[in-house]
Amino acid sequence: MAKPKIRFKGYTTDWEQRKLNEIADKVSEKNKNNEFSEPFTNSAEQGIISQKDYFDREIVNNENLDGYYIVRNDDFIYNPRISVTAPVGPINRNRLGRNGVMSPLYTVFRTHDIDNLYLEFYFKTTKWHRFMKLNGDSGARFDRFTISSTQFMEMPIPYPTLEEQRKIGEYFDSLDHLITLYQRKYDEVKKLKKFMLQKMFPQNGQKVPEIRFAGFTEDWEQRKLGELVKEGILEAPLDGNHGEKHPTSDEYVDSGIPFLMASDIHNGEVNIHSCKYITKERAERLDKGFARNGDVLLTHKATIGETAILSNLMTEYAMLTPQVTYYRIKNEERLNREYLYSFFNSLDFQTELKTKAAQSTRPYIGITAQQNLKIILPAEIDEQRKIGLYFRNLDHLITLHQQKCDELKNIKKFMLQNMFV
């Protein structure tokens, strides 16, 4: 049998091939007298999970579990239900550390003479899909793959030495632990940010927030965005429809002036590198709807309330779709850019923004209405800066953990394709 493209140092022998029925036995052990009362399900995304947790309720009466297959810890389960992520159905291992039962619609098998981690990650590849498609059928039911259990157990399995199997399994298990670690860090910082966005800004008409940096005692002041514009503290479009309708497809070019749409702004980031471009001549025909580095962007149509500070702009300016408003700081001694961005994400502002939006198939809040939105800010610019910097650092951590998580997932995907045959 062929060798994998990527291999641990010191392993040179060819891999063997075994049939699944040579290294595993199909489980036919039935649940009797309701010995086991927890039904499992096999999710392509979540693996083996309690049915109650997956569906958020019991969908099978415990009295009807007689005749279900008993699934013991480390058993493998094939689910014939197909999806985008599992085009021939998923195979997962029971890692719950306890026994349960599975509907007879599933195929359950128990291994021997093979490393379970190795086999588990082999089934995360697509290399076994060809066998399934050659020997099964997805046409009878659009959501279910059909293959006999006898034919399924004939599946060929690549088989290196047990020592090499263990190394491969441990490598991918370590990757999964790292992915889980960074995903957990990402979730924790996101949760912290959500909490602090509620606690570090005054709520329900209060004049000071619940959580505040030491040394600041003055009451906060409430203004309207339009007042800050009129006083020259902010610059923003003043008419009801800045920008211009989307260019036609033949007006987009490979490089030039970025044309930012609402979909380019998400989770505090502006995706400059994947946005569309127009020529400078096309952009210069517009006398409004432009944004520059440092502007705070706010989506106000269809997708309402996404915010970001424009940065990494390689051109002098970018053009905005009418679905996005820019706010440009004109007096940095009165209003801090990062503070404004953070306040735009606060619970009170987001709630007011969406409450005052005109409701339709594509809800929106026009620029004129935006001018009447209230903004609450500390009188001292140093307090604004501290708050803005705090949330900017949280955003940096969120981005860092997400990037690391994505990087590890890409490594895993690449290695799955190249460390198996």
UniProtKB/TrEMBL annotation:
It comes from the Bacteria. Residues 14-190, 218-409 form the Type I restriction modification DNA specificity domain. Pfam families: Methylase_S. GO terms for molecular function: endonuclease activity. Keywords: DNA-binding, Endonuclease, Hydrolase, Nuclease, Restriction system. InterPro entries: Restrct_endonuc_typeI_TRD, Restrct_endonuc_typeI_TRD_sf, Type-I_RS_S_subunit. Belongs to the type-I restriction system S methylase family. This is Restriction endonuclease subunit S. It comes from Jingyaoa shaoxingensis. The lineage of its organism: Bacteria, Bacillati, Bacillota, Clostridia, Lachnospirales.
